[in-house]
Every structure is written in structure tokens, then in C-alpha cells.
Amino acid sequence: MADQMKELMDVPRDFLKDGTQFINRCTKPDKREFIRISQAVGVGFVIMGTIGYFVKLIHIPVNNILVGAA
């Protein structure tokens, strides 16, 4: 019973220790790195938006054919 209680108390302590190590290892990006990340995210948004647009463009007529046939 004491071992279970000790293990239960170790979980939050280990979590806080790991979290503190992670935060201390993190660094704030410099301006150049931030701009590169922002550009990559922007390109990703444009690509996903374009794919979504073309999927919707194809889906509407196909859906009308399937629903119209019923």
C-alpha cells in the first residue's frame, strides 16, 4: 500500500521535473527563424486551401449527379 502511494506521489513530481527540463531547453526563435516558420505555415495554408477548393469543386457536380439520379 505504501509503495502504491509513493508511486502515485512520484507521478506529478516527475511530470513537473520533465516539464521544467523541457521549458529550460526551449529557445525563443530569432527574427530570421520566425520569418521562415511563418512562410512555411503560410505556404501550407495556401496548399491546403487549394486542395480543399479543388476537392469541393469536384465534389459538387459529382454529388449533384448522384443525388439527381435517385
From TrEMBL:
Location, primary (coarse class): endoplasmic reticulum
Membrane topology note: Single-pass membrane protein
Any single biological process term in GO: intracellular protein transport
Transmembrane intervals: 34-55
An annotated Gene Ontology molecular function: protein transmembrane transporter activity
Subcellular location: Endoplasmic reticulum membrane
Family the entry assigns: Belongs to the SecE/SEC61-gamma family.
Protein name: SecE/sec61-gamma protein
Native organism: Lineolata rhizophorae
